[in-house]
Amino acid sequence: MAISGRGRMLAAVAGAAAAGAAFLYLREKKGWTPAFTIEAADGAFEIRRYPALTVVEAVRPGRRDRALGDGFAALAGYVLGSGSGRQRLPTTLPVMAAPVDGGWRVRVPLPEDRIADLPVPGEGVTIATLSARRIAALRFTGRVDDRLLRDQEMALRGRLIDRGEGPAGGVEHALYYSPMLPGRLRQNEVWLPC
Known about the structure:
The structure is a single chain. 30% of the residues lie in helices and 30% in strands. Strand 1 (37-42) and strand 2 form a beta hairpin. The chain is α+β, with helices and mostly antiparallel strands. It has helices at residues 5-28, 64-80, 146-162; strands at residues 37-42, 45-50, 53-61, 95-100, 103-109, 126-130, 133-141, 172-175, 187-193.
């Protein structure tokens, strides 16, 4: 059976889209992530210990999508140098987001070998040090929305209860992807301190 010109064109577009998605996926996997040790693991659920960590953060008012977009834009400007003429910082993962009064706090971890030469951040961006902490994490994929995040948080809380533990603080979302990736390739986690 012969394939029409339109069929060949659609197949070529689909192949290019798949190749583009694979490129973005592999590029995202190359970002620096902070080291941690795993205390317990069961499938997508882990209890982790993170050492003290330096982050750059921004707090933005509003609903999750808008606040995260605005906060991430500010952090990306800082990390990428935004016309300052300075050397850009390496790509780091995850983008960490947590609800705060009236908005969201967005954080990006910074590699320890770059802390000494960090430039002074502009307005609305700060550098902070997180204490060493113990985190319960639950991995999942997909395009995040409020319902999916809430469902995953409840599942994580259930896993902690099953272990006879409870959270020691509020939820944080860890996003390991570019918004350009298709939903099924997006790696996400919900975190609860424990």
